[in-house]
Request: fold
Amino acid sequence: MLFGVSAVSKELNFRQNTMCQKCGKYSSVSVYMMYSTFSIFAPLFKWGKKYYAVSDCCDMVFSISPEAGQAIERGEETQLWKQDMQIVGRASHCQKCGFPLTPGQQTCPKCHTKL
Ligand SMILES: [Zn+2]
Ligand SMILES: [Zn+2]
Reply:
């Protein structure tokens, strides 16, 4: 894309073993950061950072509090607690690259395939 706004997600280097709040299994979560970029040839601005976690057991998406998400992004030793996580809904996966998609996403934030 040469010009425009797009949503970008990337996986943060963080995994945590935890009891899934949705299905009750002992499982793990991966944490992702999502933001919007405005680009003219190259990304110029980033805004609206959001953090979310996806569970391995049932592909459930949880939104994470900004404080916890920022600590993870900075690489701090941190723990996600129950009160930091809110169930959003079930993730679907991009058919092309397998990236977990939060409910309502219309374009894959990784490979930019329209869904
Ligand atoms: Zn689960
Ligand atoms: Zn994709």
About this structure: The CA atoms of residues 65 and 74 lie 14 Å apart. The chain has one domain: 3-101.
